[in-house]
Structures are given as structure tokens and as C-alpha cells.
Amino acid sequence: MTQRKPPGMGFESWIDRQIREAQDRGEFDDLPGAGKPLPGAGEPLEEDWWIRKKVREEEGTTGVPPSLLLRKQAETARARALAAETDTEARAIMDEVNARILDALRKPLSGPPLNLMPFDVDELLRERKGTSRDR
Fold first, then answer.
1. What is the pLDDT confidence band of residue 2, given thresholds at 50, 70 and 90?
2. What is the mean pLDDT of residues 19-42?
3. What is the DSSP letter of 41?
4. pTM of the model
5. Would you list the DSSP string of 73-115?
6. CA 13, 14, 18, 21 torsion: positive or negative?
7. Strand, helix or coil at 132?
8. What pLDDT, on the 0 to 100 scale, is given for residue 61?
9. How confident is the model at residue 80 (pLDDT cuts 50, 70, 90)?
10. Which of 97, 134, 9 is CA-nearest to residue 18?
11. Residue 84 burial by CB count (10 A; 0-12/13-18/19+): exposed, middle or buried?
């Protein structure tokens, strides 16, 4: 446990002592990335770089408001339906995401406005006709 700074001791010397004692105990040995350059060192940082990095690491799902997550799921479902083997499979994918969208419209999700309406499944099926195997 970290101790309190002794009265009369400057912060810098107190912190330096804490670090030195931890080094002596070996608490910094074998850390991941030891001896390697820091990722992105020397590159300019974008605004909110740390948020973007966290979202990439968590594949865009952790900490994302439910309304934004549903938008992403709807986009993914549409792509999956367009690539589905059969119209039946495509319809099942879209029916599932449409049910989630309707539920979210009835009981609003937290986060930014959903700005999403259920998909027109018949329109999507017409759109995929060029690639469908079971026309």
C-alpha cells in the first residue's frame, strides 16, 4: 500500500523514492512490452486518441451506448442478410434485427437518439436478388 508523503518532504523526492523502492523490490520487472518502444511514440496524436484506441481494442462494444450498439448491429445484420445463402436465411436475419429495433422504439435505449427504423425486408430481398442462389 502506498504511504502518505512525509511532512516536509517535497513531492518530487517522495515520488522518486517510491519509484526507486518499487524498482528495488522488482515490481517493474517482466512487465508486458519491457524493452520495446511505446506504440505510436513520436507520432502526432489525434484528438481523443485514447477513446479511439479503447474502442478499437474492445471491438466497439464495451462502453458504447446501447442505441449506438444497436445501430452497429443493424448495419452488420443488413450486410449478413445481403450475403446470406438463401432468401429464407436473409429474412430470418432481418426479422431478428427488426424485432430489436421495434423493441428499442417502444422502450427507448440510453445514448444518442436511435434514428433507426425497421428494415423493409422485401426491399432488401429485391436488392439481393442479383446474388441470391434460390431466386
1. low
2. 86
3. T
4. 0.51
5. HHHHHHHHHHT-SSHHHHHHHHHHHHHHHHHHHHSPPSSS---
6. positive
7. coil
8. 56
9. very high
10. 9
11. buried
Q: Which element (helix H / strand E) includes 33?
A: none
Closest CA to 132 of 95, 84, 91: 84
Q: Which residues contact 116 (CB under 8 A, 6 or more apart)?
A: 70, 71, 74, 101, 104
Cα–Cα distance measured from residue 68 to residue 121, given in angstroms and rounded to the nearest whole number: 22
pLDDT, averaged across the chain: 84
111: its cell numbers: 445514448
pLDDT of residue 44 exceeding 80:
yes
Residue count of the chain, please give it.
Answer: 135
Angle at 38 (CA atoms; ends 33, 39), nearest 5 degrees:
100
Give the confidence band of 39 by pLDDT, cuts at 50, 70, 90.
confident
Comparing CA positions, the residue from 58, 86, 84 lying closest to residue 72 is 58
